[in-house]
């Protein structure tokens, strides 16, 4: 008995979130909500991967002392 998921891959979930939530910050927040309400370790890890993939797209802020 496997765990059923609405998305088959992390990339599919990321693409869907980017379409549904045009703002990247909002998409990250929605992924965090799904991660934190996951009922199994498999689903938690899946949403953690989605969240990290979305965060990678956002990039890092430069601090004022960095060039």
Shape: globular
Mean pLDDT: 86
Radius of gyration: 14 Å
In terms of structural class, how would the helical and strand content be classed? mainly alpha
Beta-strand percent range:
under 5%
- Helix segment count? 3
Could you state the order of secondary-structure elements as H and E? HHH
- Determine the fraction of residues in helical runs and give it as a percent range: 55-70%
Q: State the separation between the terminal residues, measured CA to CA.
A: 53 Å
The unreliable regions are: none
Give a short account of the largest sheet: none
Number of strands: 0
Write a compact overview of the structure shown.
The chain is mainly α and 67 residues long.
Description:
This protein has 67 residues and is mainly alpha-helical. It has helices spanning 10-20, 24-36, 41-58. The chain is globular, with a radius of gyration of 14 Å. It is built from 3 helices and no strands. Helix content is 63%, strand content 0%. Helix 1 crosses helix 3 (41-58).
List the helices and strands and how they pair.
Layout: H1 10-20, H2 24-36, H3 41-58
Structural descriptors:
single chain, mainly alpha, 67 residues, 0% strand, globular
């Amino acid at each position: 008995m496997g765990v059923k998921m609405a998305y088959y891959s992390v990339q599919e979930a990321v693409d869907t979130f980017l379409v549904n939530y045009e703002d990247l910050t909002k998409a990250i927040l929605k992924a965090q909500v799904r991660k934190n309400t996951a009922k199994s370790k498999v689903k938690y890890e899946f949403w953690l991967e989605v969240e990290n993939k979305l965060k990678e797209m956002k990039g890092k802020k430069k601090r004022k002392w960095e060039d």
